[in-house]
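Entry 12.
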Amino acid sequence: MRTLRERGRVAGLPEWDRCAVMGVVNVTPDSFSDGGQWFDTDLAVKHGLDLVTAGADLVDVGGESTRPGAARVDEAEELRRVIPVVRELAGAGVLVSVDTMRATVAERAIAEGALLVNDVSGGRADPAMVPAVAAAEVPFVVMHWRGQSIDMNNRAVYEDVVGEVVAELRRSVDRAVAGGIAPERIVLDPGLGFAKNAEHDLALVAHLPALSELGRPLLVAASRKRFLGRVLAGDGDAPPPARERDAATAAVTAIAAREGAWAVRVHEVRASADAVRVARAIETAEAVYSENAANAAGAL
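Predicted 3D structure (tokens):
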């Protein structure tokens, strides 16, 4: 059974006795699953609050699409999209994460109440990011990343995807720690869908314990991604639209929770919030059964 200790604690954030659920608020016109749906500030704030009502423990706010092939937005536009939403949600008591590759956006979001920086580049896209996070003393998500979205599909070349992702994540963690970020504030993300094909993503989900060997809490972000569409489509059929992959997402959530993930990042919260609670109940039942069996054996 994976205990709270094995899931890992993240300094500066609450301690949950189960896998946490991170809800996604994309303040973008072009994200792969819900682009444009929450582009308006008021709608984005309402959506974030709705995610909390549905069971999200924290909300990840981003203003730049990282779907394959996406071009970057400029800094001023990303700030315009993100900061008002972070301000309103944090002011309402929501635990807010900011999803950004820019140090300036991270710093402004932290000033407005964000408590976590989720950088898909792991601090590599902006050399000022690691020093900024270190100075702010907030938790930092280090994702496995091989380059910008515009050409990341060309980088999906591996001989041993699990071994290579573990090794590359270890180097990213070492860079972050060398830059001043405390190890106890680092969360790892295997980067499902980023410079990976469906076979790579499935292999990583199947080997989450190998990633846990890096000794830091694990965030699993499988929500609505292409590999789930490929699985659901089967041979020769077109993958279902992203918004029809929520049940498949919840299946990965249940697996991740049982394998000791610290959190999952999802678009549709309710099913995953239910999944992590069921996984926790099964863990508890497993522990009780094992203890009772051991006591019975000892009494013989």
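Annotation: The first helix runs from residue 4 to 7. The longest strand covers residues 20-26.
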